[in-house]
Structures are given as C-alpha cells and as structure tokens.
C-alpha cells in the first residue's frame, strides 16, 4: 500500500523498515519517512522484486560483459494494467463479505472508509489511488533495466506526457534518452 502510515508507525516503534514498492505517493512522503528514520536512528529500504529476479540480473551481467555485442537501441514496456487490474473505473458498489481472516479496517489504514469489495483486495488495490499508485508508481520501477545497466548518470534526458482519465492519473508516455557519446547511442523508450 502506498502510504507512509505503516513505515512511520514502525519507525516510531524504533524498528528498521523494509517496504516493497510503491512506498509512497510522492517525494514529500518519502522524505518525511527518511527524516523520521534519521531522527530515530533506524534504517529504511525499499525493495523491488523485479530487481531481485535472477533472469534480470543475468541479462544485465551479459550485456555488460558484451555477450550480445554492442547495443544500439532497446525498447522496454509493460503490459500493466491492461488485463491485470482495473483502472479508471467508478468505485464499486454492492455488499460483499470480508474474507475470513481479513481485518478490513486495518487493511484500509488511513484511506477513507468504504465497504469491502474484491476490486480492492487482494490484488487490485494497485489501481486505486487511495491504496496504490497505478501503473506509473507500480510498474515503471519494473521497466528501468537500461537505467540499471548503464546507471542513472548516463541519462541524457527524459520527458513524460500524461493525463487524467476518470479516476486514474496514470495514463502516460515516457521517453528517456541516453547520451550517445557515453553508451554508443542506446535509447530507452518506455511507453
């Protein structure tokens, strides 16, 4: 869930914090967590299971070692949210029984109260701003393999175009260009 409430409560308890993406909705919340952790003397870390995947690690290693020769152009994309979780739809209505063993009030956390619906949990929370960050915050971290390979210092420029559709704010197109002189003209295009 993209909320600073669980990490802040953990920091207040004097414990280190590990979160999975998305950690927060915005940089303000992330900085507040970092400052609270600094004052409390605890560590924070955000993980991304895509970066822990052995296949992705090997791909980066092979490219760095020149196993496939020079890379001239690469395109990275995501299929989300297409068939994975609904976005840009009206809030669900109707009554549904809360699944056994689920504390719905605790799960809601700081989000506005609403009845349980399977379109919120267990997986679809990503598409709702009250709980997640939509495709931009959830999946963009998974399409950064070229940045990971070349390092963010090689980025020559980036621009993003987006708009709001219905309740969703994550319809976007992003293009990132890497400096030709540094990496032989590789271009990352993430749309």
Offer a few descriptive terms.
disordered C terminus, 2 domains, two-stranded parallel sheet, 8 helices, globular, 191 residues, Rossmann fold, alpha/beta, single chain, 4-stranded mixed sheet
Short description:
The chain is of the alpha/beta class and about 190 residues long. The chain contains eight helices and six strands. α1 packs parallel to α2.
Protein architecture, described:
The protein is an alpha/beta fold and 191 residues long. The protein has two domains: 1-47, 3-Layer(aba) Sandwich (Rossmann fold), CATH 3.40.50.720; 48-190, no CATH class. The chain is built from eight helices and six strands, in the order H-E-H-E-H-H-E-H-H-H-E-E-H-E. It has helices at residues 5-12, 27-40, 49-52, 54-64, 104-108, 134-139, 145-150, 180-183, and strands spanning 17-20, 44-47, 74-76, 155-165, 168-178, 187-190. The protein has a four-stranded mixed sheet with strand order 3-6-5-4. A two-stranded parallel sheet has the order 1-2. Helix 1 (5-12) packs parallel to helix 2. The chain is globular, with a radius of gyration of 19 Å. The model is unreliable at 165-171 and 180-191 (pLDDT under 50).
